[in-house]
Amino acid sequence: MPAQELDQVVNLCKRRGFVFPSAEIYGGFRSSYDYGPLGSLMLRNVKDAWVRTMVQLRDDVVLVDAAILGPPQIFEASGHLANFSDPLVDCTVCKRRFREDHLDERDCPQSKKGCAFTESRGFNLMFKTVAGPVEGSGAEVYLRPETAQGMFVNFGNVLQTSRKRPPFGIAQVGKSFRNEITPGNFIFRTREFEQMEMEFFVPPADSAQWYSYWCTERLEWYVNLGIPREMLRLRPHAADELSHYSAGTSDVEFLFPWGWGELEGIAQRTDYDLTQHSTHSGSKLDFFDQATNERYVPYVIEPAAGANRTMAAFMLAAYDEDIINDEPRTVLRLHPRLAPYKVAVLPLSKKETLTPLAKDIYASLSSRYMVDYDETQAIGRRYRRQDEIGTPLCVTVDFESLEDDAVTIRERDTTQQVRVSIAGLLDELGKRLGF
Ligand code: ATP
């Protein structure tokens, strides 16, 4: 059964080295997190799985990696300077600040006791800073609040250099920053986070069809990576929820322990962004279709997901507690592509006679997969640890291995064990992992 409480996953993250509170030795830095040895691997796997599906397995999407710092002109044109704000209210009783549209999520005990709110006012979520060495005379710059603008401002560059033509997409994975009024729910909402976004440029007449295509594709991505379908839904935005640029948006939502929450938004952005940047920059951002002799500004469908939120959802869905041989265990039933380690090599004993063979096996498997090596503690405890961190397969090297050139593969989900020859080990692991 998936985790019922967020704390089950938060505790596992801390205990096993997935996610730590940031700056913990200085008392913590509110709502910031550092990804530890296992969490950094898993977060990377989430992003790699996205790039694999969205770029590698398609011939119509290319990847970019644009700057995080940007000049005000970009955000003037995109509408972020004028519109990227949340409604902020102050409570005159508990003196805390809240997002007016999130008042139900108030978590401080005082706030439940008769809050009295001020009128709401728009609070711009962008972080502003100064670039340049001379204090007082530096240039004003912004940390990007989404990766999307990096794709729009490079539309012309990509069109000229990549030999792509609509329908085609530009994808990007990277950090974004928002000065959220109420960060919280662990890594669900933080001020610094990572996005996985793609701008898909299409002839205007085809935009409705592509919008529906991407809604389906994106929901399936989560299902294919192991989230049960009943924990996901696609929720179309009501007209009064739509962003200023959107002609239609649907969110992929996940059933978090506190209710449905957004993992990803799929928006029809029309020609808003390319037109805005053309007007503000004076550079023409359009496409000349030689087949029809027509020039047009492509429409855009944007699937925009968050890597950290998605990682939390994968962990919550994969979390399970069961009983094996009368012993309770915690097991993360992660899809093998997302698991931090794909395989753990476990020599039965630390004795010198076993170490060289075990290390050889570790070295050969490591050239293909991220592999853990653990020779401490009793074997049963080592299996439990690997179960808890989601390692799909363990390879146990025992004294018989020295005689029969074989090892035991143990599966996380079933705990079944099979003996296989060392010569055929890589093939066997590949079959079981699916890659
Ligand atoms: P929300 O309504 O939750 O603030 P949003 O609709 O503003 O999110 P988008 O602008 O659509 O979010 O961003 C796309 C994705 O980026 C979101 O679906 C989410 O996964 C991720 N994301 C946005 N803000 C944050 C944040 N503060 N912390 C972590 N992830 C975020």
Give an overview of the whole structure.
31% of the residues lie in helices and 30% in strands. Strand 23 and strand 24 (417-421) form a beta hairpin. The chain folds into two domains: 4-84 and 125-315, BirA Bifunctional Protein, domain 2 (2-Layer Sandwich), CATH 3.30.930; 341-433, Rossmann fold. The strands form seven sheets. Strands 3-10-11-17-14-13-12 form a seven-stranded mixed β-sheet, with helices on both faces. The chain has a five-stranded mixed β-sheet with strand order 21-20-22-23-24, sandwiched between helices. Strands 4-9-8 form a three-stranded antiparallel β-sheet. It has helices spanning 6-16, 37-56, 72-78, 80-83, 109-112, 148-153, 155-162, 207-224, 272-281, 307-318, 355-366, 379-388, 401-404, 425-433; strands at residues 19-21, 33-35, 61-63, 69-70, 85-90, 97-99, 121-124, 128-131, 139-143, 168-177, 192-202, 232-236, 249-256, 259-270, 287-289, 294-296, 299-306, 319-324, 327-332, 343-347, 371-373, 393-397, 406-411, 417-421. The protein has 435 residues and is of the alpha+beta class. The protein is built from 14 helices and 24 strands. Bound molecules: adenosine-5'-triphosphate.
Within the CATH hierarchy, at the fold level, what is the topology of the largest domain?
BirA Bifunctional Protein, domain 2
Question: End-to-end span in angstroms?
Answer: 26 Å
Note the overall shape: globular
Q: Strand arrangement, largest sheet?
A: 3-10-11-17-14-13-12
Domain tally: 2
Q: What class would the helix/strand composition place it in?
A: alpha+beta
Low-confidence stretches: none
The CATH homologous superfamily of the largest domain is called: Bira Bifunctional Protein, Domain 2
Number of helices: 14
Bound molecules: adenosine-5'-triphosphate
Task: Report the major sheet.
Answer: 7 strands, mixed
- Rg over C-alpha atoms, rounded to the nearest angstrom: 25 Å
Strand content: 25-35%
CATH architecture designation of the largest domain: 2-Layer Sandwich
Taking all residues together, what is the mean pLDDT? 94
Tell me how many strands there are. Answer: 24
